[in-house]
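Known limitations

Structure tokens in this collection are predictions and should be treated as such. Users comparing against experimental data should check residue numbering before alignment. To illustrate the layout, the record for V-type proton ATPase subunit H is reproduced below. The input appears on top and the generated tokens appear beneath it.
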Amino acid sequence: MANIHEENVSKLIPTLGDEKIDMIAATSVLQIRASEIRQSQINWQSYLQSQMITQRDHDFIVNLDQRGQKDLPDKNPEACADVFLNLLTHISKDNTIQYILVLIDDILSEDKSRVKIFRNARHGNVWQPFLNLLNRQDEFVQHMTARIIAKLACWHPQLMEKSDLHFYLSWLKDQLKMNNNDYIQSVGRCLQMMLRVDEYRFAFLSVDGISTLLSILASRVNFQVQYQLVFCLWVLTFNSLLAEKMNKFNAIPILADILSDSVKEKVTRIVLAVFRNLIEKPEDPQVAKEHCIAMVQCKVLKQLSILEQKRSDDEDIMNDVDFLNERLQASVQDLSSFDQYATEVKSGRLEWSPVHKSAKFWRENAARLNERGQELLRTLVHLLEKSRDPVVLAVACYDVGEYVRHYPRGKHIIEQLGGKQRVMYLLSHEDPNVRYEALLAVQKLMVHNWEYLGKQLEKEQIDKQAGGTAVGAKA
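Generated tokens:
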């Protein structure tokens, strides 16, 4: 396999084994069904007699389909596009539409350059007849149409128009989210093609595509779909801006879990390739550093150590293991205790690591939780509300308590962010450790209030005494 870290992505990604990907596709539901449909015999004469198609359309399709004139699309491209688009527009019977779509897909698969036959058609908006078919009830029609659209969009230099592109990518995203979708591999294949094109990547981001990919990956899909969707993330990360944004969607923790559970070498390889891009591609070195720290936090070093001991024969895997090991180890050396803490909080995977229990840490860093618009405090409060992990909840309660103990205005800020209410709610949590830490945090919130009140009263008393002394002196 070609080294997957060459810089020339436009040449690189297509060489990542279209044959291999198509071999996988050959066993997909779509391809099995397509091979059955190819055996059908369509009575084109009946469509002519009922005047649903013209004599020209009839003659062309019969010569192509039944008389074996396979070079007709090249000899007469204009007629080819017109005929197929007419057939798709005028025929409504599902099994005939299925057959026409398989014919179109075969024509394109035989020669990629044939996409221009359809893209240069005089039929007005060439996308519309295909996009309409995505709304059909028949699932095979929908997904074979989606496959054809991907080829037309990716194999022609002229990009798909924005509104049509938005509609198509939204449709693919919604198909990913469908429960028990038999055609999910076909959807993944379309995205693998589309996201190789840089201009289509931001359109996918705009339809909430990246968070959809990651939410599905987090839900533990089968390894084939896992591979396809991580491949999509990989091609997305060749864009430096998207590589910088990726962990905003919690990509690193989700991919670290996949790496830890992976038993398939190709899944391991593609996850490592994404991790490498998340370090190499961002132009902002601070983001690359944050990604390294996040990987350390998610125990990626442990997985790299296991892979190192296994010594895979796959050169790409071992190159990536060496690269990641070096970069992650270096990031650990540079890490301040606050960096460690911030990364742990952002990862959402709180545990009783040493910084939490260090009084010195809280004395020196409590005020820093207010940085970047109180980002870390907001994350803690979010975890108190959303997390189902008792360890995360217990640690978050502890941290809120330590913050208010060491930062004078902490109680007020935590109340404003809704943290006090969340901690009080956890007083009745089923886990005794969560209840205990919530109780301690509530006590710290209250004690802090009393200390503050006591200081205020003391200050007022001193002010009054000073005022009285001044009046006596004047008299």
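For this record: The chain has 29 helices and no strands. Residues 432-474 form the longest helix (43 residues). Please report discrepancies through the issue tracker.
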